[in-house]
Design a protein that fits this description.
It is a single chain. The strands form two sheets. Strands 1-2-3-4 form a four-stranded antiparallel sheet, with no helix packed on it. It has a three-stranded antiparallel sheet with strand order 5-6-7, with no helix packed on it. It has three domains: 59 residues, no CATH class; 108 residues, no CATH class; 170 residues, hpI Integrase, Chain A, CATH 1.10.443.10. The N and C termini lie far apart (91 Å). It is 48% helix and 9% strand. It is α+β, with helices and mostly antiparallel strands.
Amino acid sequence: MVVTVKLEGLNIVKARGKWYVYPRSGGEAYVKGFEGTREELIKHLEKSAEFTHAYNRPRLAKRAAKNFPIECLGGFVYWYTNGDIDKDLKACLQSPGALEKGYPKWQKLAASTRKDYLEAFEYLRPEFDSDLKDITQPDLYEVRDRCANVKWPRFADQMISALSSLFRQAVRRGKMPFNPCLGMDKTHKADPNANREWEADELQYVRDNAPMEVLIPVMLARYAGLRGQTLVDVNRKQFRSHHLTGQAVRYKARKNNKLVTLPVLQELQDFLVSLKLQRADGLICVRDDGSAWPSEKEMQTRVSHWLRDQERENHIGSGTTLHGLRVTYAAWWKRTTGANNREIADLLGDESEAMGAHYTRHVETEANIARAFSRVKKNDP
């Protein structure tokens, strides 16, 4: 039996003596197994704060973030993103917003980071009415796990990272007692062998066959160890003379603001000289038509798609990535010169010595195995 009430958009069903209330558009029931008369059910709906909250949630999802108080998730997202959450994504990535009393570091975040954050916050729009001080870690696990099933695990973890950054500012400004994201585990388990070192024949194939818009970032990553966010902006004006190799590139790593002066290997110097197309502004990493990449992510995607095409044709092995060329760069230094972990980290523009060990751990493993076999051969009668 289906009846109607003053509230619109509901299906109220009685089955086996119990009442069930569903949104007419489909989805999970608002009320399950209510016992009593129809009049008692209606009174329950009118008085239930939980039902009212769930019923109004789709309407809240249509409200702009700026219309929520700053003590709510939506209002604080509006402040944190300088209003970009209520704007067209493409437009605000090109020109991030600036509020007089907004989060001052928003514009300084990498465009790829702002895009990830905005996509995560957009997914959370139905939760914008949540009071910041009432958000708990169990709440976050529930939202995250649902997100992992609706979207995918890596996106769910990205969402928690975005919230953690937001909550850190909320705590500092007295809107939350603590950051409930701290200590949460991940739904996506990273592959420890991802971004592997390239084989010499794979690099040679790419050098011989890749279009220039793919080859330029490959060469910058392989022979200077640059991150994608650095190489997409690198400029000829950043190259200057150096007593060790003749040239060095000077850049600030966006990830950690570390200022690096890196002597340039001869292979990269020769490649840059060979480039015929040179822009007036000195930008190096450009598309085949000479235009700048709109974002690091678009450049990364273009390189990745080309590499996967070559993998399917069996020209290169599986698992080659642009970031893997940083590993290749670091491994070359370890094998060729015996550079220590601190030196590797500095060559890569990393602050932590542990990153030097991380990028070359497979080289250390190879050396350990070689030493073990050398002892066997030495002791073999």
